[in-house]
């Protein structure tokens, strides 16, 4: 399977990101995480050839299988989907960034499973949409979780992540993204160092960019519709 339009699609995305950042006064880098879930390992190779520096997978086992298929491809692997505690041992030290840490128990398990002397970068997922089916710590519980994680020697919290409610009204995701940025700013005011905001997918990434995203997770926009 080939992805002949990948470079053009990526260039268009980056141009739109630059335009939205300029309009809102942002100047920080925005990393496009190419979401390769359900696509074959060739998609990873195609994305990197097009200029992508990071790819995202939802499931640990699918990601590890693809890593084994393209060991020669230099790319940062991100785990963007929910992570269960019983899969923590398979995920830790295999991803440049885990986006979906959402509980003290998962944090402790990742810290326990990490290789001695290593540090696993993570993001804390926050449920800013209020939807019960979505993962993430409740906003009110974020300060306590960040404080608890600060003493874990083998984890480093790089920032926050959220998933907005699907809606044709851009005001809906904007509210979630704005809340995440506010929560980050409040945490920074308490002494935490949180440079990353992972927010925005193919349908709402430009709104996320306007609200200060540093990582956007794009699948359909780059690869087309998901494979069954």
- The backbone outline, from C-alpha atoms, is globular
**H/E order of the elements?**
HEHEHEHEHEHEHEHEH
* Residue share in helix: 25-40%
Structural class: alpha/beta
**Please, what is the oligomeric state?**
single chain
Distance between the termini: 14 Å
The Cα radius of gyration reads: 17 Å
CATH superfamily: Alanine racemase
**Biggest β-sheet strands, sense, barrel:** 8 strands, parallel
Tell me the domain tally: 1
Low-confidence stretches: none
CATH architecture: Alpha-Beta Barrel
Please count the helical segments.
Answer: 9
> Care to count the β-strands?
8
Q: What is the CATH class designation?
A: Alpha Beta
Strands of the biggest beta sheet: in what spatial order? 7-6-5-4-3-2-1-8
CATH topology: TIM Barrel
What does the model show?
This protein has 9 helices and 8 strands. By secondary structure, it is of the alpha/beta class. The chain has a single domain, classed as Alpha-Beta Barrel (TIM Barrel). An 8-stranded parallel sheet has the order 7-6-5-4-3-2-1-8. It is globular, with a radius of gyration of 17 Å. The model has no long low-confidence stretch (mean pLDDT 95).
């Amino acid at each position: 399977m080939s992805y002949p339009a990948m470079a053009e699609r990526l260039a268009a995305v980056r141009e739109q990101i630059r335009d939205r950042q300029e309009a809102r006064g942002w100047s920080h880098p925005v990393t496009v995480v190419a979401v390769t879930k359900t696509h074959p390992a060739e998609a990873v190779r195609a994305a990197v050839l097009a200029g992508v520096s990071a790819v995202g997978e939802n499931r640990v086992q699918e990601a590890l299988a693809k890593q084994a298929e393209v060991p020669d491809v230099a790319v940062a692997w991100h785990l963007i989907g929910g992570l269960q505690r019983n899969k923590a041992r398979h995920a830790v030290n295999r991803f440049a960034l885990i986006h979906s840490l959402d509980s003290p128990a998962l944090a402790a398990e990742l810290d326990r499973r990490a290789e001695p002397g290593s540090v696993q970068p993570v993001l804390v997922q926050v449920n800013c949409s209020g939807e019960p089916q979505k993962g993430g710590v409740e906003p009110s519980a974020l300060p306590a979780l960040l404080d608890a994680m600060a003493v874990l020697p083998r984890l480093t919290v790089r920032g926050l992540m959220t998933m907005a409610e699907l809606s044709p009204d851009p005001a809906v995701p904007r509210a979630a993204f704005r809340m995440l940025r506010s929560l980050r700013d409040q945490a920074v005011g308490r002494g935490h160092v949180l440079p990353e905001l992972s927010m925005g997918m193919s349908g709402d990434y430009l709104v996320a960019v306007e609200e200060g995203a540093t990582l956007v997770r794009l699948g359909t926009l780059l690869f087309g519709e998901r494979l069954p």
